[in-house]
Amino acid sequence: MVESLHIGVLALQGAFREHRLMLEKCGAKVTEIRRPLGDSPWAGLESFDGLVLPGGESTTMGRLLVEEKLLEPLRACGLAGMPVYGSCAGLILLCREVEGPDGDSLDQPRLGLLDARVRRNAFGRQVDSFETRLDVGGVAGDVEAVFIRAPLIVSCGPEVEVLSRVEGPLGLSPVAVRQNGILATSFHPELTSDKRFHEFFLHICRSWRSAGGRCA
Ligand code: GLN
User: Fold this and answer.
1) Handedness of CA 76, 79, 85, 90 (dihedral sign)
2) CATH of the domain at 104
3) Which atom of ligand 1 is nearest to the CA of 14?
């Protein structure tokens, strides 16, 4: 029997339950993370096969990550190669640089594991939220995607692979990206009935584990 993957979902704020349900539907075991789970430099998170950062409000989540002493351990897991998937606010937390809707740089707590600059609330008030189907490289040509006050990637480094783009206020912009084990989307696959994006993430987690990946 194939042993099921164990995924840690950050549960400080936002749409963490939806990720949990989706991952469980895909056969993974899920633990919600609200505080350090151990005394190691990875705060006990090193036992997971992958981590998920949900959508929500990125400044609140960043502040809570600092308060709960989870920011450094999460970063250390990502730097050690553990797969980390962030949706929407989770994407913002993963990016190296963050800007506001007008392009001004914002200094908010974040992991900075993804070599990209992201613009928060990039679609403006009129098109605050919408749904569409996207061609996502490596996943499928018709992935259901829900955008809610979504960020857009403004620029990204050479190691970042763009899996999907949408036409937005800044032209055709990346909305799904991958940099090795780091996966991020502007949209929320966890709010749909489409399991394929989470299955894709679990596939990355399984490959990492079977290649002997561990935090050390
Ligand atoms: N607008 C939110 C932020 O900037 C993200 C929205 C979301 O996660 N749905 O943090």
Assistant:
1) positive
2) 3.40.50.880
3) 8
